[in-house]
Structures are given as C-alpha cells and as structure tokens.
Write a structure and sequence with these properties.
The first copy, chain A, is an alpha/beta fold and about 350 residues long. Chain A is built from twelve helices and 14 strands. In chain A, strand 3, helix 7 and strand 4 form a beta-alpha-beta unit. Chains A, B: Keywords: DNA-binding, Transcription, Transcription regulation.
Amino acid sequence: MSKPPAAPPRRPERAATAHDVARRAGVSQSAVSRAFTPGASVSAATRARVEEAAAALGYRPNLIARSLITRRSSIVGVAVAYLDNPFYAALLDALSVALEATGHRVLLFTARPGANTDPILEEVLRYRVDALVLASVGLSSRFARECRQAGVPVVLVNRRSEDDGAACITGDNAGGAALIARFLAAGGHRRPAFLAGLEDASTSREREAGFATELAALGFGPPLRAVGHYDFGRAEAATRVLLSAAAPPDALFCANDHMGFAALGVARREFGGLPVSVVGFDDAGPAGWAALGLTTYSQPLRPMVDRVVTALMRQMLAPDEAPLRETVPGALLLRGSAREPHDGVSLQDGERVWRG
Amino acid sequence: MSKPPAAPPRRPERAATAHDVARRAGVSQSAVSRAFTPGASVSAATRARVEEAAAALGYRPNLIARSLITRRSSIVGVAVAYLDNPFYAALLDALSVALEATGHRVLLFTARPGANTDPILEEVLRYRVDALVLASVGLSSRFARECRQAGVPVVLVNRRSEDDGAACITGDNAGGAALIARFLAAGGHRRPAFLAGLEDASTSREREAGFATELAALGFGPPLRAVGHYDFGRAEAATRVLLSAAAPPDALFCANDHMGFAALGVARREFGGLPVSVVGFDDAGPAGWAALGLTTYSQPLRPMVDRVVTALMRQMLAPDEAPLRETVPGALLLRGSAREPHDGVSLQDGERVWRG
C-alpha cells in the first residue's frame, strides 16, 4: 500500500475573506455577514448568492473572530458531574439540541462529583462563553458573584443554589417524594427506607425531607436510612446493609434512578427475587427498559430543558429581571418494581401512573 | 421577599488587561502570557506573583482572542450520534477527561443517526477547532478533503472510513464477533442469529461478517438475521419477530449492547424467562449491572481513548505521517445472559471471561 499524500500545511496560504465573497456575489460585506448570522434579516436571493460565492471560494465565517466584535461567542458552557448516570447523558443531549436551535453550541466540562468545581468554572469563563449551565454541579457564592460581575448568566439544573442570583430549574423534589410516600403507604408497606444521595446535594435533601414529612403525616415513624452518595457501587453496598438487617425495610425509595438500578440488582440477585419494593426518581432511560422496569417519579426532560433555555434567554435579554427559579412537575410511573395500591392507577401517554 | 439587586451591565466597564497585571506584578507582559499558558516555561515565583495580581484585578486571559494569534483554539469538536446509548456517554466522558489533560476542551455536536452530518461538521470548522473526533458518525470523502485542506485533524472512533486520510480507532469487530461464534458453538447452540445495527455502518457490517465467516468455518449454515438499526424500539420489534418464528434461534448476537438490552427485555418479559442466549458488543455500563447482566465483547474505553488522543497529537505534530488506523482488542465478558461452554472460562481483573 502506498503512503497517503503528505498533508497540506496547517492552514491554507490565504483563506478567502468576507470581502472576497462580497465582491464575487456582488453584494455588500454586511450582507455577507447577515447571511451567516442566524436570525439576521437578509433576502433569500441574497443569501443564495452569498452561499454560492462562499462555496466557490471555500469561505467559512470565523465565529471566533466575530465573537470579539459581537462579544458573543455563541458558546454555552455546560458542566455535568455524572455522565455515567444515563439521566444526565439524556439531559446533555436534549440541551445540546435545544441550544443549537438558538444558535449556540455546547462547550462541555465534566466535573467530578463532590470535587471543588471553581477552578473548572474559572476556565469556562476564559472561553468567553455566553452563558453557563450547571447540571448537578454546585455553585459557590464566590463564583456566582464572579459570573454576575462578568455578565455571564448561570442556570442550575437539578440543583438549587442558596444564592438567588442564579436561575434554578428543578424537578418536583418535595412533591414527588411526598407522592411516593403516599404510594408506598397505600400499597400496604410498613417499613419504608430512604437511600440518600450526596448528603450536601439539594436534590437528596429535598427528596428526603418531602418523604419523611409525608410519612410522619401518615403516622409512620422516621424512615430507615442509608447513604449511597449517588454512586452505583456505594448504593449497592448500602442496599446490602439495609436488606441484611434483622428487620429489613419492605420498601426502598432511592434518591435517584441510578442508585435504584443498583438496589434492584442487589435485591434480585442477592436476596432472591424482589423482597423489597424499589422506587427511584428521574425516569432515566433504562428505568423504562423491560429488562429493568423501575417504578419512578419522573423529571421530564423536554419541559426542563425548555425552561433552562427560557431562563438563559431571559438573563441575556433582561438582566434586570430576577432569575427564573422554577419547579417542573413530573409523574409517578409504574414499571413493576414496587407493589401497587389497588386504587389510583391510571393511564397517561400510554404509561401507567399513580396520582394518589 | 425583596427583589435581588439589579444585575450589572453585561460586561464590566473596562476589563483588566495583561498589561495591567504585568504592571501590578512587576513582570513583563510575556511573563503574564506564559503564566496562563499550560506547559509554558515560567518560574513558580513569577507564576504566583502573576496569579495574585490577576486575582486582585479580576483579570482573566481571553482564550478566544489568543486563539487568533496562536491559530489554536484549544477546542476539539466532538460529534456523537447516540447519547442515549450509554457506551457513547461513557466515551464522551472519558474523551473529555483525556483531552482536558492535553489542554483542550470539548465542543459538543450531536448528530442524528443516519442523517447527513456535513452541515453540522461545516459549522464545527467555523469555530476553528484544533481537531475533530467523530464517534460513530460517518465521514463523507468530501468533508474529509475539506478538513485536510483546512489542516484540521480528524479521528473516527468506532467507525471506519473508506478515506485513508482520517485516523480510525475501532474495537476488534471481526475478532470479537468470531470469538462470539466459537463461544456459542462451544456452548452447544444450534441456531444462532445476528441482530444487525445500521446496515451501512462499518461496525455492524464487520461484526456480521466476522460472525458469519467463523460460523461457516465451524460447519454452520448462514445465521438467521434481523435488523434493529441500532435503535432500542426497533431492536425490540426485531427480537419479537425472531423469537416468534416457527423455528426460533437459540442464540442472538446483537451488534451492540444497546440492542442487547432491548433483546433481553423482550426475551425475559414476553417469552418467559430467557429461552435464548443473548450476547452484545461494547460492554456499555449497564451490561455489568447485576439487574441486567449482559454477556458481551468489550470495547475497552481507556485504551481506545488513549489511542484517539495519540492519533490527534500525531496528526497535529507530524502531519506528514500516515494517520493512525488501529484496532483495540477487547475480551468476552460472561455476565449470565448466555449459556456457557464447560471449558475455557477464566478470571481477568475480577471478571469471568471466555478466551476460546
């Protein structure tokens, strides 16, 4: 086999400029610029002439150079802590599609759970991102202040910050957890337990509080408790401890689906079938797989991502308004991993749900 | 509750410059630049002085502006087709971490399976990315040529291109599939079937050819066949058709794990237990979950991502060398979803494997 031809130099000798394209198309340079700006006003005929000339000359608008003029990079930084959790992979996918529709691209930052993310976020700002989305990543008040000073909108998803200068879009942690408590009680469970995520995460704290408060209102004592730290292996270990107890729980509410999958495996493989009802929170993709079938309270991706985009746009266009802080309601989806009450089951979009 | 204070203007009145930092730190402007360039030579004392002055002034180097001078953006474009497939989510995570270690960040592009990706890739080039990684996304020869002209290295992962100007890092599609054929034969299976992915994807074609060729060498006729298009729902439907046949298969090799999870669900929930052995390809995270347990041939992420980074660096630093085209070997991991031969099972890194 012959060696492929030597690669050309890293950049072409002289790249075509907007000026070259304008001359060839017989239009103004500003028309060329508008033709390549999403949403800018330009006639179809002009756009076609510009695109034809650009193709002939191999012209490609330099978004990076443009960002120095417009002070917009068309880039949104997205920090995600858990890509091994399928809920966040799906969230990232949906975010990428939604932001693309607004003319933005995602610059990805992976953070390690529990680690201090300030150094990473500092770096994000050096890329002059137009905005920042933090998915299950904490926001220090110091960094929140820096972002405000730099004029970079920040939206938290599935995490609430104490600092009310940042927008937060969350699922219905308290309401969903209370519904799960009523569901387990109505299903005849006597010894419910809670499998906590990271102790300092607002998601885990709010879900636990909603669950325990509702159980108390129903006359139960404080639920049994173990901590899985939102980690698969540690959730397996915590489930083993709970199910090996002298008086094991008969129901286990896991603070997210990812830990629910771990609990299901331990219950089914190590404790003979499913001696305990398992309920998750998220409706991550695999929860709906027939081979798994995890009953769970959903955090609906589409509406959540829509609200994230709305929150970003609002901060960009109306920085004087208070940032959006919204709770998106979900539904309790019945997939077979928990014993069900006789009443209250209905169908919604082809899924069996429990409304209490 | 009182309204939060009005947000400041989008950009501060006058941002601190490298010049301001140099003056305050009492060093040259070039020392400031070196202090913020990963890998650049600068003494620890100078770096500390610069960082202190930068912090005091709120200075943040503008990577975007720098990229116009260095002609490097420190950004690598990554296009992924299937984020709902956990294998690609994990690949993206590992890539992001590995590229970060080389001073790069990931600009994410999500492509739809089977769609023409040229328009998206065109846009990637406008961001002046330093390089492009395509994960299970096809590369047209037209676009490959454009990237060569623009001097942008391209590496394909888990997809092979006809064009030998692009680097390709793949798992051992042919070897792994042949091993699965020997494994199923040794386990006493008589009617093996293949569940194909996208018909035009090199992964599906190479796995099918390796499987069928080895089965023929073992004296089997052509395997039964159905097409799942790498789509969960279509893989479920294809499995239903295969298992409902008058003479159903007794083993099903799925072209990837994601379809394997679909097949497992249909077999277990709709055909009473596991009447058929199911084997996947990838070792996506959930394959190892106790609640699923999918026997599969692995594509080891760490070595694959290491090779991707090596391939990128080689093209950046030695563009005259032929691009890397490498196959990374995996292992057949036994997780219980397929009947096993009596012989040939051993332990490797705590996992049961079959070496044939």
